[in-house]
Amino acid sequence: MGHAVGDVLGLAAGVAVSPLPIVAIILVLTTPQGRLGGLLFALGWVLGLAALGAIMLAVGGTGGASAHKQPATWVGALKLALGALLALFGARQWRRRPKDASQAQLPKWMAAIDRFTPGKVLGLGLLLSAGNLKNAPLTIAAAASISSAGIPVTQQTGALAIFLAIASLGVLAPLAVYLVLGERARTILADWREWAARNNVAVMAVLFFVLGLKLLGDGVAILA
Asked: What is the pTM of this model?
């Protein structure tokens, strides 16, 4: 289990650094129902990642993802494909980044967050985790690594839980600040939101590319 956890720590950190979801939960927290909205968003986020991970673990099983105590060929092929996808997205994001960070714009739907119902906030958390072009491939790759470790289901579940805890730190940090400081957290969260909004594209591009190269390397190592 320790080996499995070690393999996914970097991927979990990559999911945790998600500027757009962080901006989204900060905006949710500034609405009149900020406490409820923040909790629902965080719940949706965790559920989305957990669902992806659980599906991947079910596909791999306890032994189907490994052969002779080594990751199976399909695990290497999956990581290779996901790595190539992330690297390509990273290069694309970098080319499209604004030359002046102060000109960075957030998606238009974010302006309507204050009118979201609790159900929509929960769905937004799900979408930004399981439907995110960075987070979904990283979660799938992490679950494939856990599955290929050839450990029992209980240990697989524990390793996935550790991955989820680390991967959720970025989203849970604003919520924790809000719950502890209340109204005093507004200034802190506003500063975080401004930084994340300015640097979203550049940060995402670098993460896409670096983590894509890591998965490419892992895939090549397994296939070789």
From this structure: 0.82
